[in-house]
Every structure is written in C-alpha cells, then in structure tokens.
Design a protein that fits this description.
Structural class: alpha+beta
Shape: elongated
Number of strands: 12
CATH architecture of one domain: Orthogonal Bundle
Helix content: 55-70%
CATH topology of one domain: Hydantoin permease
Largest sheet: 8 strands, mixed
CATH superfamily of one domain: Hydantoin permease
CATH class of one domain: Mainly Alpha
Number of helices: 33
Strand content: 5-15%
Length: 899
C-alpha cells in the first residue's frame, strides 16, 4: 500500500537549492522570482543577437551561391522563422516555462522530449564553438595569442558570468548593449556615406559555385538549408521570456510588445546582420582579401572600420573590442541555454541532477572540443546537417501550437510535469522521426539533387503535416496521462511544501503524488527513481497488461519481460543509430572539402572518424557516470528505507509493550496505591515512636521509607507515561520558578549546587508537569554524581543555568558525575531502557515528552567519566523590558539549606 511507503528526504547541492544560480531550471519559473521589468527581459534576450556567426553565415552563403540566391534565401527564411517562433514565444511567456518544458507538453511527452533536449544542447555548443572561435581569431590577430590558447580563454571567461544565471547576465547585457549598438551601426553609416556604390558591387556579386551568376533554385534551396539551423535560436529567447511578468489588462499591450520583440523579433535584427555579413564579405573580397579570411568576422569588421578611421591601430583595436563584446554577449546566452538543456536531458535519463552549473562547464568543454576539431572551417556543412533535424522539431511544435490546440485535439494549456504526461507522445516524436529520417536521406543525395537542396524545407513541411495527421488519428489521447489531483485544501494556496525535499514552491509547479501521498514539486517528481510512474497506470490497464503478457503460445515460450526488453533495445538502438548517422554524415561531408575520401590516407581517415565520435563518447561517459550515481542513490534510499522500517517495527513493538503496561498499570494502580499509602503512613508512625531506637533499627526504617517512596514514584511515572495528559500552560516567570523548585529540593551531602539564572523571561508552562521533568533531571544528576565513585561518599558539583537563546528560554542541568557510555547515548530516550540496577527507564522519555508537549526541545551532551549536560528549551512568552539587578550565584553545601 502506498501509505507504507517511506518518503526519502531529498537534499540538493547548495547551488541547486539556490535559485539565484539555478534559475528554476527543470521547473516553472515562480512568480516570486520573476521580479524584472519587461524592458530588462527584452534587453537581455536581444543582447544575444550580437552573435557574429550571423555575419559569417551571410558571408558564407553569399560567397558560395552569390547575391541572387543568398538574399532571397535570407528573406524567405527570416519570414518563416518569425512565423514559427511567434506561438512558441507566446506559450513560453504565458506559462513561464523554458523550451524543454514547452516541448514536453507540445506533442513530445516527458521522455520523448529528451531527444529534443539533445538537439537544443547541440545548437548551443555548436554556436558557442563558432562564436568562441571568432573571438579566438580576434585575440590571435590583436595579441598574437596562439589560436588554441585563444579557444581556452574564450571558453573559460564565460563561466563566472553565466554562473549566476539571469541575474548577472541581465546586468551584463544592460551595460554592454549601448556600446555594442553604437559600434555595430557606426561603420555601416560610414560605408554608405563614403562609398554608396559598394551596394551595386554587392548586388552583382557572383558566387564561387558554377552557375551562381543568377538565380538557381538548387542553390537557393541549399542556402535555405544552412539558414534554417537558426530556427532553434528561439529556444534561447524563451529561456529568458519565461521570466516575463503575468499578462494583465493593464500591461496587455506592453506584454505583447515585449513578447514579440524578444521572441520572433530577434530574426529582424538577426536578418539584418546576415545581410550585413553578406555585404562585408563582398567588400573584403573586393579589397583583395583571401576567400577564407573574407568570411571571418574579425576581418569583415576590420574592413568596415577602415571606413571609420585611416589609422590601422585604431581600426584593429575597434574591430577587436567590438568582436570581444559581441562574443561575450552571445556566449553567456549559449552557455546558459546549454546548461538548461543538458540539465533537462540527464535529469530524465539518470534521475539525477547535480545542478545547472555542472552542465554549464560540461557544455563549454564540448564546445572547446568542437573548436579544436575546426568547426568554423566547416560552418556550412555542420549547420546544413543540423538544420534537417532541428527544423523537424520546430515544425512539430508549431503544428501543435497553431493547429492542434485551436482544434482542441491538444489541451489548451501546456503541461510539463512528469506526473501528468505520457512518456512518449506519437504526435511530436513520430512527426520529428519521420521528417528527420526523410530529410537526412534527401540531404545524403539519395532522393536526387532537388530533394538534397530542399532537405530542410522538406523536413519542416513533413513534420508539420505529420504532426497534424498523427494528432487527428490519435485524437490527442497521448497528451495527458492523468488529470491534476491536488487536494482542494491545497489548490487555493499560492505555495505548497514538497513532501520530498521539504522546500516550498508555487502551486503551478506542484503535483499530487499518489506514491508518496502528498504534494511533490516537479523537480523531485522528475528525479524520483522509485515510483516507476505508478500514478499514471490505472489498475485496469495494469491488469490487462499483465494478462496480455501471459497469454498465448509464444508468450509462454518467451522469457518474462523479453518483449519489453527488446522494444527498449530497438528504440535506443534506432535513436543512437540516427545520431551516429548524423555525426558520420558531417564527417563525410567535411572530408569532401579535401577532395573526397579517396584523397585521404587511412591514418587521417581513422583520425577524423575518431575525432567526430568524441562528442558522442563524451555524452555517453556522462550518461554512464550519472546512471551509476543514480543507482548508488537508489541503493542508498533502499537501505535507508529498510533501516527505517526496522526502527519503525521496533518502535511499534515498544509502543505495544507500553500500551500493555499502561493498561496493566491503570488496572492495578488503585490496588497498589492503597496498600502503599498504608505502608507510607505506618513507616512514618514507626519513625515517630522509634526516634530513640538503636541505629540498626533507624537504618532499616529509613530503607523501608526510601523503597516505599520509590514504589510510589514508579507507579506515578507509569501512570503519567501511559495517560499522556494535555498540557495546561500558563505564563510563568522562568528564573523565579527554577529557583523555587531548587529551594524545595534537598541536596545530598557532598553535592555543591551552583545557579546562574539570567534568562529574565516568561514562558508558557504547566508548572506541575514541568516540575516533574525538572526534578527528574536534578535527581538524575544526583544519582550520576553518586555513581561516579560508588565506593566513596558522593562529592561533586551540580550547575543550573538559564539563558535566552533566540526565541527560546533555556535551562541547563550539568553535573560532573559518571556520564553516559557512548554506546548508550542513542538509547537514553527509549522507554524502559535503563543502565541502573534500580531504574525503570521512563525518566528521560517522560521528560522529553513533557518538554515537546510544551513546544520545546532538549539535547543531552555527555562524556563517560566526566559528566553530563542536559539543555531544555521552551518558547518564550515574553521577555522583561527592564533588567533587574542580577543576583549573585548561589553556593550550597549543606542539605536542606535553600537560601
């Protein structure tokens, strides 16, 4: 039964719990965290459009296909990017979720969207590598820094800025935006002012490819294939748009302007930068610069700034500063987005989340590897292959948001929580798989030159149509696995405490967990490895599944779970095969640049294949490491659960034992107390009439009296422990009350009492019940002092101190007695546990119960052979405003001397 499940207490790394660094990765961006104005969010999102890969892409396609093919391709792709990005921006801003969470609910399912997380992560590290390579080129040109060192510097400098997420990134973009804008626009104004005829040269530019002197539909298609890779940039935009404030009637216009500007509006600025790169490449080539240098942004802007100044040093300095600012601005966004993407990917496949900052470093390391492989030299091919898969993803999401949701086939809202989603939704997963496979086949040239040129457009079209078709056929069945089941008492609350991590989160981030029987946050739900999605499996479905597994002749021949095992194997095999195919296709196309495979010797061929596989090896290594850690964590949770069950069983047995004792005590207490009362009276009478008796007789009478009262106290303790009466608290001056109890206590010979009462506080206390606890502690101290040297008369010191500690009044009882053995320290509060020959073992358990009944707590510190300190804390009801003169500490050596 679920009620028997023990809830593990999940604890995160410090940076995972710190949302200033974690930025609500893997979860809904809480309203309390979204404190920035729309302007700050728009400015931060558009700050990432500084990336100079746009100019490099514009220059590369113009150099290859000419103005007549490049410019129409740029314009067409910009329009399509704007259209596809608009609904994505709206839904992300409306529901305050990042690209991965949006993908989950927009047709891909909880596990199905892991592959899109990898696609998105690839976009971030590919473009991080491109931008850092551009930055390294500038460092090499200006500082003569070796290119490899430049790669490292360009990568490492990003880490501290991105470490603190949106908080620090927004400040960086706010500070650098005006400088960047001026340095971007200025050279183009000078170019137009000094040499307007350069526009004619640009328009008439002919590409390197044969037949690129005019419009060629094959070259046009190939150019769009490169440009379509930019469609995934919307992911980085919505990573910031999720922090938008809620839309209201008062801010509706401003909200929409912000969403459009920071969302699809990026392509307006981006498209102009692509055109600018095309223009600068033509200017660079006309000035005599080599083809390889002409597409490098640092050389582009050196030529641009030559129109601003004739001084070579000023030109180089300005171009370098501009490149450095631009690349830092974009790469903080690339690194930030990559850390979110990897967090989403690995948290689902390993049920482990070391924190966004770990994946930040991981993403940068992969980018550094790509730079060392020479990603910039193969810019066109890398982006062309990537765009075929990326555009299939965006096409499926676009179909869901613009067609299936209005048709009510898809839910009107975006669900992102694991508890409510199917693992796989055929709408998005199926559409993307079909489109990717078809477009990669076309890109490989198998379907002819036209399909090869338009493979990216084919991917978008097929994905869009397939998603709609699958959605209609399945009737949206695989969007929501179960309805939200938060208790009514919780639904109206703004924030709810998670039963696993014990942190408080806003209600949209919470789901009801039927496994742990309580509200659970989306992150703990994602990371849980024990429930196996039991909340999404109705009983009748489970019974039918088990019945199907055991039915039929072949089912009896096949080992249990073999069908499920084979299905999982085939699914993972196909996914990995597709990824490997894409990697090797890129490697093959790169080899074509060197004249084809036949021109490359075996050693170089194997080296390139190995280097191309390193990225996959890196991802696989992390997968293995985190899976192992997740398994260790699951084993630890299992062992902890077993230990807890054992302790619970022992406590249950102890409780049953105590209940039996309580029933027995209640039954016989009356019969025992009457004869004990008679015995006490009789001993008192004998003491009175035999006051002059011989010492031996007096000793026996005292022994009878001690043991009679001991029996009385045992019965009282048993009754008190079994009845557990309510606390009747009243305000009490704490110091005065403690002093009064001590005055009534008789100190044994040889025991020195020292008091230091300085709490000056008033507490809410049931005087009679708490007196029982306090007296018990004092008597324990007496006994400990007596037991220290059992063969000698007792001699020791008892210290009573009171203090105010925060909102608690504290009384400490310390002695220099025998102390507690280390092996017994954990057992002292266990009922009926005692190391004394004359003890019952209810003293400290009863004290603890009384203290906790007052809303307080206690702790015991002891060292064997040296003494014990017991500290009891009670909530302060009021602290006196005027300090009375502090009484001197009291020292008593004689028994009964209380003053």
């Amino acid at each position: 039964m679920t009620s028997d499940i023990i809830r593990p207490r999940r604890s995160y790394q410090a940076w995972v719990a710190n949302e200033t660094m974690e930025d609500y990765s893997l979860r809904y961006a809480a309203k309390s965290f979204r404190k920035w104005k729309s302007f700050v969010i728009v400015n931060t999102a558009l700050g990432g459009i500084s990336f100079l890969a746009l100019e490099a892409i514009g220059g590369a396609i113009t150099l290859s296909y000419g103005f007549s093919n490049a410019i129409p391709a740029i314009l067409v792709v910009c329009v399509l990017v704007f259209i596809t990005n608009l609904p994505i921006s709206y839904y992300s801003s409306r529901y305050n979720i990042d690209m991965d969470l949006l993908t989950r609910g927009a047709g891909f399912g909880y596990i199905g969207s892991t592959i899109t997380s990898v696609i998105y992560a690839c976009f971030t590290f590919i473009f991080f590598a491109l931008e850092a390579a551009i930055m390294a080129q500038a460092l090499e040109l200006y500082f003569s820094l070796p290119i490899v060192v430049g790669y490292i510097v360009s990568s490492v400098v990003i880490i501290p800025i991105t470490f603190f997420g949106f908080t620090l990134i927004s400040r960086l973009q706010l500070f650098t935006q005006p400088i960047w804008a001026v340095m971007l626009i200025a050279p183009y104004l000078f170019i137009y002012y000094k040499e307007p005829e350069v526009l004619s040269s640009w328009v008439s530019f002919v590409g390197r490819r044969e037949g690129a002197d005019g419009f060629n539909y094959l070259y046009f298609g190939a150019a769009t294939g490169v440009l379509f890779s930019l469609v995934v940039q919307i992911g980085e935009q919505v990573d910031y748009l999720r922090f938008m404030p809620d839309k209201t009637e008062h801010n509706r216009v401003k909200w929409w302007l912000a969403v459009i500007s920071a969302g699809p509006g990026w392509i307006i600025i981006g498209g102009l930068k692509i055109l600018a790169g095309s223009l600068l490449t033509v200017i660079a080539i006309n000035s005599g610069l080599g083809l390889a240098d002409a597409v490098e942004p640092i050389h582009m802007y050196i030529k641009a700034y030559e129109y601003v100044s004739a001084d070579p040093w000023i030109v180089l300095t300005a171009a370098t500063i501009f490149v450095l600012i631009s690349q830092v601005k974009i790469n903080v966004t690339n690194a930030y987005a990559g850390s979110l993407a990897w967090s989403n990917f690995y948290s689902r496949i390993t049920h482990y989340h070391p924190g966004r900052v770990v994946w930040l470093v991981f993403n940068i390391l992969i980018s550094l590897l790509l730079m060392l492989l020479g990603v910039f030299e193969t810019l066109e091919i890398v982006l062309a292959v990537y765009s075929n898969i990326a555009i299939a993803w965006i096409g499926a999401i676009f179909a869901d948001l613009t067609v299936l949701k209005p048709l009510r086939i898809s839910p009107s809202f975006v669900e992102f929580k694991r508890a409510h989603l199917y693992n796989f939704n055929p709408v998005g997963c199926g559409a993307m798989a079909i489109a990717s496979l078809l477009s990669l086949t076309a890109f490989a040239g198998i379907l002819g030159p036209v399909a090869e040129a338009y493979s990216a457009a084919l991917s978008l079209s097929v994905s869009f149509v397939a998603a709609i078709a699958i959605g209609v056929v399945t009737k949206g069945k695989y969007y929501i696995a179960r309805e939200d089941a938060l208790p009514e008492s919780i639904e109206g609350q703004k924030s709810v405490r998670c039963v696993i991590c014990n942190y408080v989160y806003e209600t949209p981030d919470m789901a009801y967990c039927s496994f742990y029987e309580g509200p659970i946050c989306s992150l703990c739900c994602s990371l849980d490895a024990h429930c196996h999605d039991v909340c999404k499996r109705p009983a009748e479905v489970q019974v039918a599944r088990e019945k199907w597994r055991g039915h039929g002749y072949f089912q009896r021949l096949i080992p249990p779970n073999m069908t499920q095992r084979l299905a999982k194997f085939l699914g993972i095999f196909v996914a990995l095969a597709v990824v490997m195919a894409a990697v090797f296709l890129v490697a093959y196309r790169i080899m074509e640049l060197d004249g084809g495979i036949e021109q490359i010797d075996n050693a170089r061929l194997l080296t390139r294949v190995y280097l191309a596989s390193l990225v996959l090896i890196c991802m696989g290594a992390w997968w293995i490491v985190l899976s192992h850690e997740s398994r260790e964590l699951a084993e630890h949770d299992l062992v902890t659960s077993l230990e807890t069950l054992t302790e619970t069983r022992q406590e249950l047995m102890q409780s049953e034992r105590l209940a039996t004792i309580g029933q027995l005590t209640a039954t016989v207490s009356h019969e025992l107390r009457n004869p004990l009362g008679t015995l006490v009276s009789s001993v008192a009478v004998l003491n009175k009439y035999l006051s002059e008796a011989e010492p031996e007789v007096r000793d026996e009478l005292e022994r009878m009296q001690r043991n009679t009262w001991r029996c009385v106290r045992i019965i009282e303790d048993l009754l008190e422990f079994s009845l557990d009466k309510d606390v009747q608290a009243r305000p009490v001056e704490f110091d005065r009350w403690v002093a009064l109890q001590l005055d009534e206590q008789e100190m044994p010979d040889g025991v020195t009492l020292r008091t230091d009462l300085q709490s000056n506080a008033t507490v809410m206390m049931d005087s009679e019940k708490f007196r029982q606890a306090f007296v018990n502690l004092v008597q324990n101290a007496h006994q400990a002092i007596a037991l220290r040297d059992s063969d000698q008369p007792p001699r020791g010191e008892l210290n009573i101190r009171t203090r105010v500690n925060g909102e608690m009044a504290e009384v400490s009882v310390s002695d220099d007695g025998c102390g507690i053995r280390p092996e017994n320290s954990a057992k002292i509060f266990r009922p009926l546990f005692s190391t004394k020959a004359f003890g019952v073992g209810l003293g400290l358990p009863l004290v603890k119960r009384i203290v906790e009944g007052h809303g307080g707590d206690m702790d015991v510190t002891s060292e064997w052979g040296k003494g014990t300190i017991v500290k009891v804390r009670l909530p302060v009801a009021g602290v006196k405003q005027t300090q009375e003169k502090e009484p001197p500490p009291t020292v008593r050596t004689e028994p009964g001397d209380a003053k």
